[in-house]
Amino acid sequence: MADVSLFSHDQIVGLLAALPDPAFIFTRSGRYAALFGGADNRYYHDGSSLVGKTIADVLSDERAGWFIQQIAIALDQPGMHVVEYPLSGRDVRGLDNDGPPDVIWFEGRVRALGYQVQGEDAVLWIASNITASKRLEKQLRMFSETDALTGLANRRKLMQMLNEHYEMHARYGTPSAVLIFDIDEFKGINDRYGHLCGDQALQTTAEVCRAVLRSTDFPARLGGDEFVVLMPHTTRELAQPIAERLRLRVAEELRLLQSLGDGATISGGLSEMLPGDHSFEDVLKRADVALYNAKRQGRNRIACHFPVSLDAEL
Ligand SMILES: Nc1nc2c(ncn2[C@@H]2O[C@H](COP(=O)(O)OP(=O)(O)OP(=O)(O)O)[C@@H](O)[C@H]2O)c(=O)[nH]1
């Protein structure tokens, strides 16, 4: 604890004003009773014009309601209440145009004061700009979920998505189709034309997925030359023509690649989530069996694996 007797009243006022992060005093009803600090205008707008107003005066009803709720939580619990929230200068009525132009992510550290201010319970709310770490967090998440070569989702993200859609299927019976496909004789392509041409074939395949599939479909690179397309809300009847169109378009684009000689084709295995499946792995296994059958039947085709009682391998 600082020995405040070393400083004059004016010096303490000056020190509080120089604090880089803004420290608001909010009353329970949402009044901006006071503001200390917030001197770093690289990160903050000057909020001094807010003092005397209420949160409801400056924010939308929904936002204001959220702030009042957080103040109540902090007042009703001991210690620090920590929250994260986005806010832009435009969200707050009455701020000038200085300060950062974009949305700012804040970490709010909120604590009950233990005494009343202007006749009400009050909290200290320190708002720290965490936009840079939020941005980094988003970037890291993106890297951890993306396949570097093709830009498609990677295996980790695919498994997460398959699991989410399996849960939807198990709970609500929502249909989801799953296609596994790979490039035929890809090892030969690498051997004949080189690894870089192989990479180019994988990238082209990914581009076709992005171009041909609906935005709600979810293509991913499983690894090597294997791709998976999750088609949510898609029955097998709808999935078959989509898979077929993808097969034709990939072959067409790979033929157009000068570097691959006569081009290359793909083989795929298609299945769908079914009642009785215990996890998303069941549908992946069926699609994989179908892919194996497509290879056995001569490649450059899509095979389907649905249960025997329906219309097994087509
Ligand atoms: N260029 C390139 N090749 C890769 C990459 N990852 C895996 N591979 C190669 O992909 C090939 C996959 O071949 P296989 O799975 O054996 O099958 P295939 O030759 O496609 O034969 P079929 O699937 O039976 O038609 C292997 O030779 C791997 O070395 C990659 O990122 N880039």
UniProtKB/TrEMBL annotation:
This enzyme's EC code(s): 2.7.7.65
GO molecular function, one term: diguanylate cyclase activity
Signal peptide interval: none
Domain of life: Bacteria
CDD domains according to UniProt: GGDEF
Location of the GGDEF domain: 174-307
Any one of the GO CC terms: plasma membrane
InterPro entries (alphabetical): Diguanylate_Cyclase, GGDEF_dom, Nucleotide_cyclase, PAS-like_dom_sf, Rev_trsase/Diguanyl_cyclase
GO biological process: cell adhesion involved in single-species biofilm formation; negative regulation of bacterial-type flagellum-dependent cell motility
Transmembrane segments: none
Catalytic reaction annotation: 2 GTP = 3',3'-c-di-GMP + 2 diphosphate
PANTHER family: DIGUANYLATE CYCLASE DGCM-RELATED, REGULATORY COMPONENTS OF SENSORY TRANSDUCTION SYSTEM
Name assigned to this protein: diguanylate cyclase
Origin organism lineage: Bacteria, Pseudomonadati, Pseudomonadota, Betaproteobacteria, Burkholderiales
